[in-house]
Amino acid sequence: MDENIKNQLIAFQKNEITEYHVYKKLAKRIKGKNGKVLEEISKDEFKHYNIMKKYTEKDVQPNNFLVFWYVLLSYIFGLTFALNAMEKGEEKAQANYEEIKNYVPEFEEIIKDENEHEKKLLGLIDEEKINYISSMVLGLNDALVELTGTLAGLTFAFQNSRLVALSGLITGIAASFSMAASEYLSQRAEKNATNPLKASIYTGIAYIITVVLLVVPYFIFSNPMISLIFTIINAIIVIIFFSFFVSVVQEKTFKHYFFEMLTISFGVMIISFVIGLIARQFFHIEI
């Protein structure tokens, strides 16, 4: 066998044994039908590993870091996120499988198995938190847009970190309850809506977490402008984090979602900068 093809097979073999361990660990943690499906897929991955081993004549160790990473992702972000992240890796692998299937006849069977995996996994995805992702988006987006603008305006109007922090925290917490209540009423009004109470809780929690991240720099730094800079950095981090989460779970384009959120949030913030500056000059407020 050509050395280049053999090296590719070894890389695929490592990928298969890694995914075997990931699916096996997830199968032990997930109960019921989902766990059985994961167990079945893990067996297929091990079968693929052994097919490649016939040609490479080598035992290959899994990538233990990736095994740990995907299992950790399932704990933090849920099974849906971890599986979709895995699927992105499998799509790349399948593209490479096509290149060498002429050299290894069994690769047709492997490609068929991988396609079946995708269908099974799509049917497997049914997590509660994913059903309420629109509620989380609502809470997070509203907090980012409203509070970044509010904090920016207050910074220029008051120029006092503690006062801005207190005002922002009170405004943010009050707004989180208001937004949660609005989401509850909105879901109650829809016929095929999700559980209204849970939807409102997800919205409120997402809002409050965002509020805390945006306000906390004002409690740390005495200089309001430095606080604002770190608030902006925190806002960008939140946008990156959530854009990545949504892009993986809902298979959307990360760049499009990220720049959309960034543009809206910072557009409102810039307008609030101007309003705060004008208000300070117009009312001659000195604190």
UniProtKB/TrEMBL annotation:
<keyword id="KW-1133">Transmembrane helix</keyword>
<feature type="transmembrane region" description="Helical">
    <location>
        <begin position="261"/>
        <end position="283"/>
    </location>
</feature>
<keyword id="KW-0812">Transmembrane</keyword>
<dbReference type="InterPro" id="IPR009078">
    <property type="entry name" value="Ferritin-like_SF"/>
</dbReference>
<dbReference type="Pfam" id="PF01988">
    <property type="entry name" value="VIT1"/>
</dbReference>
<dbReference type="InterPro" id="IPR008217">
    <property type="entry name" value="Ccc1_fam"/>
</dbReference>
<feature type="transmembrane region" description="Helical">
    <location>
        <begin position="201"/>
        <end position="221"/>
    </location>
</feature>
<feature type="transmembrane region" description="Helical">
    <location>
        <begin position="67"/>
        <end position="86"/>
    </location>
</feature>
<protein>
    <submittedName>
        <fullName>VIT1/CCC1 transporter family protein</fullName>
    </submittedName>
</protein>
<dbReference type="InterPro" id="IPR039376">
    <property type="entry name" value="Ferritin_CCC1_N"/>
</dbReference>
<feature type="transmembrane region" description="Helical">
    <location>
        <begin position="228"/>
        <end position="249"/>
    </location>
</feature>
<keyword id="KW-0472">Membrane</keyword>
<feature type="transmembrane region" description="Helical">
    <location>
        <begin position="163"/>
        <end position="181"/>
    </location>
</feature>
